[in-house]
Amino acid sequence: MNKYIKSIIISATAVLSFGTVAQNTNSAYFIDGYTHRYELNPAFANEKNFISIPVVGNVNAAMRGTIGLDEIFYNVDGTTTTFMNPAVDASFLNNINDVSRLGADLKLNLLSFGFKAFKGYNTVSINVKGNMGTRIPKTLFSFLKEGIENKTYDISDFDIHADLYGEIALGHSHQINNKWRIGGALKFILGGANIDARFNKAQLTLGEDNWQAITNAQIEASVKGLSYEIDEESGNIDGMSFDGLGLNGFGMALDLGAEFKPNQNWAFSLALLDFGFISWNNNMVASTDGDNQFNTSDYSFNVDENAQNNFNDEFDKMLQDISSLYDLKAQGDAGSRTTMLGATLNIAAEYTLPAYRNLKFGLLNSTRIQGDYSWTEFRLGANINPVKPFSAGVNVAVGTYGWSFGWLMNLNVTGFNLFAGMDHTMGKLAKQGLPLSSNASMNVGINIPF
Question: CA 20 to 30 Å from 57, out of 70, 154, 249, 412?
Answer without folding.
Answer: 249
